[in-house]
Design a protein that fits this description.
- Helix content is 51%, strand content 17%.
- With 211 residues, it is α/β, with parallel strands linked by helices.
- It has one domain (2-208): TIM Barrel.
- An eight-stranded parallel barrel has the order 1-2-3-4-5-6-7-8, surrounded by seven helices.
- Helix 4 (64-75) links the parallel strand 3 and strand 4 (82-87).
- The termini are far apart.
- The structure holds SN-glycerol-3-phosphate.
Length: 211
C-alpha cells in the first residue's frame, strides 16, 4: 500500500520527502507543462528532490515510434528511478508489453473499463491507473471501476495492482482504497488533508486553553 504524490513541482516533491512516507511521484503532461521547463529537466530533479522511489513519466508523443523513443530517452535520465505511465490504448498496449518485458515499471493509465484493465494485466502492467473522480463524473461510479479493476488484478493472478488517481477529497481517497486500490496518487494538498479533521484542531485548542 503506497501513497504517491501527483505533481511535477520540485517544491512539493521536497515537502513530500520531508513527510517520509510518500512512495514516489506521478506526473502527467499537464502537470509538467505548468512548471515551464522541459520534462527532461524536471523528471531528474523530481527524482533528486524525493530521493527514493519511482517518478512516473507519461508518454505523450504523437506516434507510437515517437512514444517508444520518448520512453527510452526518459528512462535513461535516471536508470531505475523512472517508471512510465502509458495511456491504455490498443496502439500502446504492445509497447507497454515490450517495455515491461525489459523490466521497465509500466502503469497503464487512463483506464476506464475492466476490459482495458484485463488486457493491461496480460501485457505486464505493474499498475492500472483509473481516474476515479473523472469516471464518477463521466460514467457514474468511479469506485465501482476501482472494485472491478481490483477484481481483474486478483483474477489474472499476476503482480498488477490498482493505483487510483483523480481523487478529489480525503473521503474519496479512502473509499478508493477500501474499494481495492492498493495505491493512490494525490496532490500534496490532498495528502495533507488526509491527516486533518476540524474536531482534532478543536480538541487541541481545548487542551491548549487548560490553565
Ligand atoms: O494524472 C491524471 C489524473 O490525476 C487525472 O486527474 O483530475 O484530471 O481527472 P483529473
Amino acid at each position: 500500500m503506497s501513497i504517491y504524490l501527483d505533481s511535477a513541482s520540485i517544491a512539493e516533491a521536497t515537502r513530500a520527502a520531508e513527510l517520509g512516507f510518500v512512495a514516489g511521484i506521478t506526473t502527467n503532461p499537464k502537470l509538467l507543462a505548468r512548471e515551464g521547463r522541459p520534462p527532461e529537466a524536471i523528471i531528474p530533479d523530481l527524482c533528486d528532490a524525493l530521493g527514493w522511489g519511482l517518478v512516473f513519466y507519461q508518454l505523450n508523443g504523437p506516434t507510437l515510434e515517437e512514444r517508444e523513443d520518448e520512453a527510452r530517452r526518459m528512462l535513461a535520465l535516471r536508470p531505475h528511478r523512472i517508471g512510465l505511465k502509458i495511456p491504455c490504448t490498443s496502439e500502446n498496449i504492445g509497447l507497454l508489453a515490450r517495455l515491461a518485458a525489459e523490466g521497465v515499471v509500466c502503469a497503464a493509465t487512463a483506464v476506464f473499463s475492466s476490459h482495458q484493465g484485463y488486457l493491461a494485466c496480460e501485457a505486464g502492467a505493474r499498475y492500472l491507473i483509473p481516474y476515479v473522480n473523472r469516471a464518477t463524473r463521466l460514467l457514474g461510479d468511479g469506485l465501482a471501476l476501482v472494485r472491478e479493476l481490483a477484481e481483474v488484478c486478483r483474477a489474472t493472478g499476476g503482480s498488477t495492482e490498482v493505483l487510483a488517481a483523480s481523487l478529489k477529497s480525503p473521503q474519496e481517497a479512502v473509499e478508493a482504497v477500501v474499494a481495492g486500490a492498493a495505491h493512490i496518487t494525490a496532490p500534496l494538498e490532498l495528502i495533507l488533508a488526509l491527516g486533518e479533521h476540524p474536531l482534532t484542531r478543536q480538541a487541541l485548542e481545548a487542551f491548549a486553553s487548560i490553565p
